[in-house]
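Hello support,

Our group uses your service weekly, and this is the first time we've seen a run hang past the timeout. The protein is Transposase. I'm not sure whether the cause is the sequence or the server load. Input pasted verbatim:
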Amino acid sequence: MNFDYIHEELAKPNVTLSLLHHEYEAECRTNQKNPYSYRSFLRHYSKYADKYKATLRIRREPGEIMEVDWAGAGSTAFVIDRDTREKVKAYVFVATLPCSQLSYAEATLSMDSQSWINAHNRAYKYFGGSTQL
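Update from on-call engineer: The timeout came from a worker crash unrelated to the input. Re-ran successfully.
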C-alpha cells in the first residue's frame, strides 16, 4: 500500500479512508491480489500515521467557523486593579479563525456564561462579522 498517496489524498475535500479503501480493493482485484479488509487497512494506515507523526487535517472554509476556548483549560492569569493595585484573578478567552489564524484574546474576571457570551460578541466585533458556525 502506498501510504504517502493515501495521506495526500486525505487532505483533499470529500476524501475518506472508506473511499480510499474502496479504490484500493478495486486496484487489488484488477491486479489479482487479495486486498486487506477495511479493518486491517485502517490498522496499517494508523501505524503509518503514528510512525511519521502524521496528523488529521480538518479542512475549513474561510468564514465557516470561529474556534473558541478558555486558554490553558481554565488556568488563570492576573490583572492589576487600577484603583487598588491589587492582583485580580483573570481567565483568558481566545477565539481564532482557522483559515487565516487571525486571533482575538481577552481577559475576563469570570468563566460564567455571561462572560462567555460577551467575549464572543467582542470577538465578532473585532473580526468585523460572524462566521457560519
